[in-house]
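Appendix B, example 12.
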Amino acid sequence: MDRNIMCPRSLRYLLAVAEHHSFTRAAEALYVSQPTLSQQIKQLEESLDVQLLDRSGRSVRLTDAGEVYVGYARRALGELDAGKRAIHELQDLSRGSLRLGMTPITDYLAAPLLDNFNTRYPGITVSTLEMPQDDIESGVAEDNIDIGIAFTNTLSTEARSNGIETQLLFIEPLNIAVGKAHHCAGQEEPLNEHAFEQEPLVLLNSDFALRRHIDLYCLEHNISPHIAIETNSLSTIIEVLRLGRLATILPDSIVCRQHEVYSVMLLPELPHHTITLISRKESYKSPASLAFMDLAAGWGVDGCRKIPSHRSGPCPMSELCDPDED
């Protein structure tokens, strides 16, 4: 062992001798033998190349160097004790931090989950970043974020090679969404692909997984969508919908939580997609990350049961908004 590295035990022994002015009384207070205590302090003095204690009198006193050093020793031990408490606080989730990456879609979907997590663990600071799924994958792989929540269970080849793993939370239905003033609002009959082609749409841009799924659906069914507006903001899409002229495609659980926004089924049916947790495989996960993943797994079970197939009844996510719900 490098003798220049100070052992906290040696510092505690020094402080005890300085307090009791006696090796014997200090050893008794620490429940160690006097030779052990004397040896530890001697090694400390040798490592510093200075005498810390004056042993010449009837009582042991600090030298000038000892007086200076003891002040630093007390502060050092205080910091070490604080560090030990901080570690315990991390383990019991009374403090900590968590970095989450989410797409615009999962940002909306995960709001009840984030509120539930904060209610249970108010000492943990959660930082969320909204980004495309590809950026979430690279952020997790490069340890810039702890966990990603993505609107798909399909990872890129690069992500898989970087050891990214997924945890499926729930399956999310997709439908056309329109505002109250739209001519399709409240329509019970599904829209066919020909009618869908005539509807002007506001969609996320192609950086986002949801848009790529929509494009693939249109390609498979020979649909030429009328895309009027592209954006990277779900809030923009919602506000445009409320104006009444344009439609979009959104998860039902988002539609049901928006005032005066309605879902309309499309035939052939839009594919359902998964809400998936993304994390780094075989790497250290903080207690906060593990707690979030555990809570999300329960949220996923509830989510599968509560997502509706049509626009009716109370919002299926309302129970998740209640902090008293398990």
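Residues 303-326 have pLDDT under 50 and may be disordered. The chain has three domains: 8-91, 96-171+274-321, 174-271.
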